[in-house]
Every structure is written in C-alpha cells, then in structure tokens.
Amino acid sequence: MVAKIEKSVCNGCGLCIYACGEFCLDFDAVRYKAHLAKPRDCIDCRHCAYACPRHAITFVIADVERFLRREGRKKEARQN
Ligand code: SF4
Ligand code: SF4
After folding, report:
1. The pLDDT value given to residue 55
2. Nearest CA to ligand 2 atom 2
3. Residue with more model confidence, 23 or 63
4. Which of 6, 24, 58, 79 is deepest in the core (most CB within 10 A)?
C-alpha cells in the first residue's frame, strides 16, 4: 500500500512531508498541495496519515505486482 493524498481535502499545511521519514512526499507549490513524489519509496508506515489534521491521506495498492512480492516475502519470513 502507498499513501494517496486527496487533493480536494489537503490544505497544503506540509505536516505530512515533515512526518515522512522516507522523504517520499513533496510539496506542489503551484497547486499548494502535498503529493507523493516517490511512490516506490513509500513503506506504508502511515506516519503521514497520523500527522494530517485534515485526514486527507488514505492508502491504496499502487503496484499490484510489488504488493504481491512484498506479501510473499512476509509469508516466507513467517514460515522460517
Ligand atoms: S498534512 Fe494533510 S492537509 Fe497537510 S499537506 Fe499533508 S495531506 Fe495536506
Ligand atoms: S506511509 Fe510512511 S513512507 Fe509512505 S508517504 Fe507516508 S510517512 Fe512516507
């Protein structure tokens, strides 16, 4: 899962950008909104969502193959 910012709800406060330890969020100065600039670096930690006062961040499966690979690795780890 990766973060998805609902643009119509985001007020551009930038708190999610500071909360993201993976530096995958960035600020779109033209639209005055946060956006997920590096989706492949998102680790689904959800710190951005906890920081968002507008509840503008949800989570979606952006890349099904990547999701399945990650789930497969989790399953392998549980079996070992
Ligand atoms: S914390 Fe929420 S409202 Fe603020 S910039 Fe991020 S998504 Fe937008
Ligand atoms: S879920 Fe974590 S890694 Fe992904 S954008 Fe939010 S804070 Fe960054």
Report:
1. 98
2. 45
3. 23
4. 24
Reported as a single tens digit per residue, the pLDDT across 9-60 is 999 999 999 999 999 999 999 999 999 999 889 999 999 999 999 999 999 9
Which residue in this structure is represented by tokens 């999701």?
67
| Token couple for 11 | 């007020």
The reply to whether CATH 3.30.70.360 applies to domain 2-79 is: no
Query: Ligand 2: does its nearest atom lie under 6 Å from the Cβ of 34?
Result: no
Q: Is 34 in the pocket of ligand 1 (CB under 6 A)?
A: yes
Domain map (residue ranges) of the chain: 2-79
Question: Which residue has the least CA distance to atom 3 on ligand 2?
Answer: 42
Cβ of 24 closer than 6 Å to ligand 1, yes or no, is no
